[in-house]
Amino acid sequence: MPYQIQIDSFIELPAIDSTNNYALSLVKTQKLTERQTTSLHGTVVFAHEQLQGKGQRGKKWLSAPGENLLMSLILDTKAIKLHQQFLLSAFIATKTRHFVEKLIEKETFIKWPNDIYIQDKKAGGILIENILAGSDWKWAVAGIGININQKEFDASIPNAISINQITGLPYNCKDLAAKLSKLIIENFDSVTIKGEELINEYNQFLFRRGQQVRFKKENRLFEAQVIGVNTNGKLIVNHSTQELFSFGEIEWII
Q1: What structural domains and CATH numbers belong to the chain?
Q2: Is 122 helix (H, G, I), strand (E, B) or coil?
Q3: Kindly report the CA angle at 18 between 60 and 135, in degrees rounded to 5?
Q4: Cβ neighbours of 132 (radius 10 Å)
């Protein structure tokens, strides 16, 4: 069913299948004026409920209605080269991590490639979907989900945690979405200007960095020390030798 196209800097929806799907529909529609197309950068799609929220690798993002931050941010990526895709991912992850840490006043980490972790538990996740035209990177839609007020989680996600469970405080999810999106947009130029700094910051707060972690690759189980992530987004680990893995190649066993 086609969406009713609405162009505004902040779009608030009571319920939608996926904020990423809605945001992608805004970018892909052929009926936009030139002014609307130009103003799409920085548009926020916020929903109080997602009926078919999307996570990484085709997984569902489960969220209680009205209790969490569920948003997608439309970003004009024409100035970013295709080989710099991980810089955008690192940028969104580091800004989101910083935002969460300021809320809870407790150390917060990024679990490779872009989950937000507190106390070994998942507080949020990021899914970036891209629109390409040949070798040009036209748009990115950054979907961000953060557990805010939810107190009980589905049995399929036993390691989930919310901001409320840390602080004991209630939050306005719409206000938080507006603040986080502002933080991202106001610093967007740093994706290309401060690429090396982004990777350094990402690695500084990389979940389990320097620690031994169990991993699974297909039928192979092994333990390795997490070293860091390179500029291409590959995870560097060390056991008897150093190995690099692309996202999707290995699974963390926590």
Answers
A1: 10-204 (3.30.930.10), 212-253 (2.30.30)
A2: strand
A3: 95
A4: 12
Instruction: Report d(CA 154, CA 47) in Å as an integer.
Output: 20
At residue 125 the predicted structure's pLDDT band, cuts being 50, 70 and 90, is: very high
Please give the backbone phi and psi of residue 191, each rounded to the nearest 5 degrees, phi first.
Answer: -55, -45
**pLDDT tens for each residue of 133-188:** 888 899 999 999 999 999 998 887 889 999 999 999 999 999 999 999 999 999 99
Q: What is the largest CA-CA distance in the chain?
A: 58
83 half-sphere exposure, CB direction, 13 A CA radius: 2
Q: Which two tokens stand for residue 31?
A: 């009926």
Yes or no: say if 69 and 99 are a contact pair by the CB < 8 Å rule.
no
Q: Are 114 and 92 in contact (CB under 8 A)?
A: yes
